[in-house]
Every structure is written in C-alpha cells, then in structure tokens.
Amino acid sequence: MASRALDQILQKLRCPVSKQPLVAHQQVLVSLDSATRLSYPIRGGIPVLLAEEAVKLDREQWQSIVDAAKKNNE
Fold first, then answer.
1. What is the pLDDT of residues 3-17, one digit of tens each?
2. Residue 22 CA to chain centroid, in angstroms?
3. Which pTM does this prediction carry?
4. Would you say 32 and 21 are in contact if contact means Cβ atoms under 8 Å apart?
5. 56 close to 38: Cβ distance less than 8 angstroms
6. I want to staple 15 with a disulfide (CB 3.0 to 4.6 A). Which of 4, 31, 35, 36 is the partner?
C-alpha cells in the first residue's frame, strides 16, 4: 500500500479493541494503546482489523515501534 494512501487511511482507522489510533510498521498496524499493545496484519495491502487477528506485542517491541512512528511524524 502506498505510504500516502496508508497515511490517509490511518487518520480514520482505530484499533477495534482500544479505539486508539494506529501506526504502520512494516506489514502491520500497531495500536498506540500502551495497555493492549496490539498489532494487526496488513494482507494484500488491506488492513485486517479483527480482534481475533491481533497479536499482543511485548512492551519493548511496542515501545520501539511507537518511538519510531513518533520520530517519523516530526
């Protein structure tokens, strides 16, 4: 998925569990919610935002992704 198109979509999408914004990282979308730390796959360019498809990231991995996303948005 093109970066610009993904950025536009991300402005509207939210984590279905926490309702928090998402950031793109490689082929996944990651919730910005520190309590849930959920990651959702992107398959064939389409985000799969189903709670049963989510993977919980460990705190270090989640923090690394969130820090990188914040740095990219500066």
1. 677 677 778 999 999
2. 4
3. 0.86
4. yes
5. yes
6. 31
